[in-house]
Amino acid sequence: MNDKLAACIKISEEVVKGLKANGYAVLEEGEYPSTAIDIGGTHLLLVRYFGPTFTISLPSKEAFDYRSMEDLAVGMRTIAEGVAAYRVSQPKVFTIADAVLKLRPAVVTLDPAWTLDIPGTPTPSEAWLNSEKYSIGLFQEDATVRVIVWVGSDMRLIGINTPERLVELPGWVISHLKDQVVTNVRLAEEEKKRAAIEPPPIEKAMAALARGKRIQLGSGRWYVTYFIADGKLRCGVSDEGYYDEEDATEEQFSESMKGNAEQAQEQIRDGA
Q: Is the model more confident about 256 or about 188?
């Protein structure tokens, strides 16, 4: 056990004792260790140790910052009052920590090494459970948690707002993580194939433009379009709805095609 984790656990033990809580669970053992305090069957308080400072926070609402165990002892009443007020406003809540602790035993069957990345904000509303192959996003939304798994560009999500949903969570996540890794392998292979594609020779591309062809490179909200006007090579730039045209050089055109070789080849082939 590293010194930071030991310090985080010592803090957690004091909070459990001071609030007469049910106990604590370790969430992350790495550089910035964290634990969750079980109060009334919900892991309501998040403890994060930054060394030497530490933060104890309620879900998306309130945070208590301390620099020493003595500060914590003095502030224990304030934490207790904050917890009591929160439980009145949110009598039934599901937290990111609840979801992480439910997921951990299941996801280690896919990959043994996972880290929990939590932003350093006072009351974090998101966390990412990551391994070398997989990634799971967890988002606190008032009294519920939204869990997402990206499968390529497709966002799969489930809301945790009942005990039944929390029970279903591991099976749901495992099925989508398997899709995630299969899709990532496929996308990597496709990207490798695209990277191997050579751009068309500049002479061939310029000849297509001379015949009146317009070649668009890029996509989405930013792309450029090369064309010939009044015997000059021109470039139209579309950026977030803004459009402008300017003179271009063959070197600029060639570099643009290198970054979009497949797109350039398809357009020249279609216009042949």
A: 256
